[in-house]
Every structure is written in C-alpha cells, then in structure tokens.
Amino acid sequence: MSTPILELKSVSRVFDGVRAVDNVSLRFHPGEIVGLIGPNGAGKTTLVNLISGFVPASAGDIVYDGRSLAGHKPHAIARGGIARTFQIVQPFANMTVLENVMAGALYAAGCGMKEARERAVECLVFTRLDGFRDTPASQLALANRKRLELAKSLAMNPRVLMLDEVNAGLNSSEIDEAIGMIRQIAARGITIIVIEHLMRVVRALAQRAVVLHHGAVVSEGSTDTVFNDPQVIEAYLGTKFAKRFTTEQA
Amino acid sequence: MTFDRLVFLRLLVGLALFAAAALSCAYLDNYQLQVFTTLAMFCVLCWGWNIVGGYMGYPSLATIAFFGVGAYADGIAQVQGLPIGAAWLCAAAAGAILAVLLGTALLRLKGHYFAIGTIATVEVCREISNNWSELTGGAIGLNIPIQAGDPDFVGRFFFLAMLGLALIAFLATVLVDCSRFGFGLRCIRENERAASMVGVDVFKYKVGAFVLSGALSAAAGGIYASMVAFIEPKDAFNLIMTIEIPVMVMLGGMGTVFGPLVGGVFYVVLKEFVWAYFINWHSGILGVIIVAVIYFLPQGAFGTSWSALFAKARSRARATP
Fold it and tell me: What is the pTM of this model?
C-alpha cells in the first residue's frame, strides 16, 4: 500500500464534555474513495470539520502529506489541497455561478483572474452547469446547488476532497449522475471521502468504508466486509438492509 | 462587454468627472469652493466606508472615529511644526494604525455586535480627545496653523487637495472592484465560512479592508482639520456624520464603484435644498425622503437593475384593467 496522503492519529474532539470524535485513527491513500458512514450524531461532519480546520482537535494529530495540520486555519488547509463540501450547501448566494467557482480557483488553487475564469468554465462544463454561468447561485435548484459545490471544490485543484452528503435530497437519476461525476474525479487521482446516508451511493463508489458510532470507529475495511459486519448491522444498517445486501451479493 | 473594458470605461468616466471638477475650481467663488470641498470630503468618506460596508458587508460605524483621529493627528503634527503634507501623511498613518488595532479586536464580531462595537469606538475616541487636554486641547479644542495666502488661493488649494484624495479613493475602489482582494471581500460578504473553505484568508482580508478604509477617512479628516484650522471633539467625532455616511452609500448603491459618488452628491444636494426651503422641518423631511428612497430602491441607484424594475412596472401596468 502507498504512503497515506491523509492520516488521523488518535484524534478526539470534545464539546462541553461530549466526545463528538473519540480517539479516531484512520489512513487515506491517494486516489481511493472511502465511504464514511454512521447514524446521525455519529461524528462524521465533526470529523470533516476537524480535517478541514474549522474545528481544532482536542487531542491527537492530523497529518496531511507528511505535515501536521495542527494550528492551521481552514484557508491554509484549503490552499494545501484539502477541499470539502458542506452538508447544507453554502454558495455565495448573490454571486453568479461562474464567480462561485472562480473563487475556488483564485484562492485555493492560486490562479490569476484570467486563469481562474478558464478553470471555472472547465469545472462548470464537467458538472454540466455551463448553461447557468451567469445565473446567481441563489436561483439554482437543489441538485444544481450540489453540483455547484462540487464544481467549486474541483476548481480548488484538491488532492483530498470530502463530500458531505452531496447526494442528499437528489432524485434517483440525479444521484446516478453524481456517482458518475465522483468516479471521474477519483480517476484524476484525487482521494475522495464520501460522507453518506445513502448506502447505495457508498456501495457504488467506495472501495473502503469506515463506520462511526458515538464518535468512534466501530468498523473499517472493504465495503462488502463492513456491510456484513454484525456490529454495523445492529448499530446502523439494520437487519432489513443486511438481508437485501446479502441477497444482492448472492 | 468584457471585464477589462468595463474597468477601462469606469476609469474613463471617473477621470473625466475629476478633470471637470478640477477645472471648475477656476470659476467657483469661495462659498461654492467650500461646498464642493465638503462634497469631495463626503465622497472620500463614502468610498472609504464602501470598502468595508459595501464590498465586505460589515456595517461599520467607525468612519468618523478614523476621520476624527486623522483630524487630531494632522493638528498635533502641524502644531509640532511639521509641514502640511507631512501632517496629512501622519493623519493617514494614524488612521491605518487605529484600523489595525481596532480591526484585530472588532472584526471578530459580526452584524449588530460589530456595528455597536464600532459606534462605541467613536464615543471612546471623543472621550479621549475631550480629556487628554495636554495633547488635544480637550473640550476647548485645538488651534491649527492657518494656511498662508489669500482666501481664494487657500480655498482652491484645499478643494484640489480634497479632490486629489477623492481621486485616490476612487482609484482604490476601482482597484478593489476588479482585483482578487475585492473578489475575496465579496466572498466574505456572501458567506464567511464558505470564503474560508475556498482559501480566502478571511481575517487578513477583513483587516486589510479596514486599514484601507481607515487610512482614507483619516486623511480626509487631516485635510478637513487643516482647512478649518480648528478642531474640537464634538466636531471631529460627530455621531450624526457616522450615520450619514452609510446612508449616502445606501442611496447610491453599496459595493459599487460609482454608488458612493452618486449617493454622496444626492445627499448633500438634498440636504442643502431641504435646509434652504424647509428650515423648521428639514430633519423630518430629509428623513422621510431617505426612508422612501431606501424603501423603493433598497439596492441604491447603482445597485438596482433598472431594466428589471421598468419591466416589472410595465407588466404591472398591463395587468391592471
């Protein structure tokens, strides 16, 4: 196995006595897609916030590309090549779609104005938002807003991309489309961490899955192994899903 | 129209206006020169405020704190024997230093809290200038050496100085508008968290904007102090003016290049008109007009899409039987 691009070493985060993330150690390798799953309140988004620097760790260390991220601000982490999307999409509402994506290229990727514009157009074509480039982001429908988040993150030229429930609220065909896009992004060598409640998406995308429960890792391994783990079935997936999964596997 | 052409057009229009204003000073009498100097001063303050309030979306009410500090810095520097140009530079530097100190603390606050923090700054500055008599002359005020020369020459000198500063403020705004710095400020205005996520160094940008705004406002205070040759706390830290500046920019259009100019001119002319014709009711009438303009044009003259507004009015007219 190659050297991990991102490594969490016994990372914990405590909020007012509650351990939102509890002694988590994980490794992410270049170009892999990892599914991060778990029930609501399991600590998935907190983990993303810790990696992206929005929340400091109470204990442990996060190492990216051989360097500790301790004390780094979110903008510095973004410039270093870690991009994320937000569970509740956070576009620059009154700026156009093109400007939203340009922002990613300008600051995180360090492009000049002209280069940022060209890069943003490429990302809009990739995410099929090209037709909306002059539309204010506030006027986009949910599916397109999610795509915009993806385009913005992509324009940042990331090496690690964390997608926080990027498929939530989308219909079946929109999800299929998003899965196709995420696969194409991973093919570029970008490490993708997919935080999802939709097991269908995790199964379709991730080579590896990590299950969090009460802030701790309860299972980790290949997606098939994790989905058959009795502890995961009991804590999160439920027997109904496990039966369906076993039938489909057979 | 491409991005570069738009910037070029703005520069062209702006420079033409400034050239016309500079040439006009040959034909203006002393009273008119004073009105135009005041107008140029308000434009500087509006452009300065617009960087923080318009582009960055932070409702600063500290403009007059910078203005007053600039006025006192200029006065003290001149009393100490510095030439007038150096005193103006001292004023701008004092504004910038105050902005760094204030910004480091206040820019961690948002919305109403930030606004209250900035307005409190004006009061604190006023109290300091009131009580530090040895340095500021206290409540009695500070006399500043009067500029030598006949009144016509002095009037023109200060008008051109303020106009020059307004030109600097205009050029700074054009630069902010088309630069990655300005783009970052707009991202901060829209969503600070998302701006941070795309790599904008939010705090550094906010302090940078505050410093630029503070230096411009303080320089305006410096020129003003030299012009009137006397400053006192209630004049230098005038709370009404700290409210008037955001109102002017709102009228013209926040976060636009020409909004502060149009808003400033409109407000000053309106104020003069109402003052001249409705002496007893001027504050009330002025207030009603401002509320009406902001109600019907919340984005201001330059922030409003006039074509969309007319299209809406036409469709309403058609729908009415």
Answer: 0.88
Q: What's the total number of domains in chain B?
A: 1
pLDDT tens column, A191-223: 999 998 888 888 888 989 999 988 899 888 888
Residue contact A94–B190, C-beta within 8 A: yes
Maximum pairwise Cα distance, chain B: 75
- A92 contacts in B (CB within 8 Å)? 186-187, 190-191, 194-195
Domain with CATH 3.40.50.300 in chain A: 1-81+161-250
ipTM, interface predicted TM-score of the complex: 0.87
Q: Which residue range forms the structural domain that includes residue B26?
A: 3-319
Per DSSP, B147 falls in state: P
Is 3.40.50.300 the CATH number for A1-81+161-250?
yes
The CA distance from A146 to B258, in Å, is 35
Mutate to test the interface with B, among A89, A107, A152, A160 (most CBs of B within 10 A): A107
Show Cβ contacts of residue B2 under 8 Å, excluding neighbours closer than 6 positions.
none
Q: Which residues of chain A have pLDDT under 70?
A: 1, 235-250
Of A94, A104, A112, the CB nearest to B198: A104
Nearest C-alpha neighbor of B147 from the set B93, B219, B74: B74
3-state secondary structure of A151: helix
